[in-house]
Specification:
Blueprint lengths: L16 H19 L8 E5 L6 E4 L13 E4 L5 E3 L8 H10 L5 E5 L2 H5 L24 E2 L8 H11 L4 E4 L3 E6 L2 H23 L9 H9 L3 H18 L8 H4 L16
Parallel strand pairs: 6-7
Antiparallel strand pairs: 1-2, 1-5, 2-3, 3-4, 5-8, 7-8
Amino acid sequence: MTIIEAPRRTATTPTGTATEKTMLDVAAVTRLLEAEGILDYSGHVSARIPGRDAFVIQIGSTSRAELAPESVLVVDYDGKVLEGDGQPPSELPIHTEIFRARPDVESILHSHMELAIAFTMMEGVTLVPMRARASRWKSGIPIDPDPSHIKFVSQGQALAKTLGPHHAVLMRAHGLCVVAESARALFVDAVHFRENAQAQMQALQAGARPMPLTEAEIAQIEKMEMRDWHIKKLWNYYIRKYVKEGMLPREWGDALIPSKEALRRDKMMKDA
């Protein structure tokens, strides 16, 4: 894939409210995922910009632990850098081709989570929904057979085909991708994806046969689900936690911490 760079963009260059918000969300999500051990020196997050035929993704060489909006690029779906100074990650085709194939997807995570990789290296073992929040992956978690870095459009297209309509895909001996309706939802899903993989691995390590959620159990879980509110709740917890601990700049708090009104549930569950 040919990557075309654009002129340097400074922190003071106006880019529009939607673009700035998306850059900040991606920077915050990246730092949160690094703090949680889901990202490290590699891996990346992307998100579509509302109202623009483009998405944002970090400069590939920038530390995930220090990512700021100024180190986030605006890129089109042909891989051309529209705004920013630097090169996107070498595996940019992961993002361009999943976005092309899945118009419902607003944000993508590519991670080299070791626990997830382990499930691509065990014969006869499939990662399945074990915990309640893993009902998100009830349709399945396929494994893409290409163990190499995804640097060509054809590889990205093959990965997107493997992902299909699902919300996550494992990559043989390499990593995973998780997709969601927003960068904030993506972070929450990544946390629950890891929790679910840990639960299944613990069952395997205990020498027991894992007991995944049944269709009836998933139906009951989803009957009680309040996804939008749950995302806000977890986002509020992790943003406050890492602002307090200094992992996120305190000045980001005003833009990222949900308001008290935003954290109100739209509905309450009541017995019939």
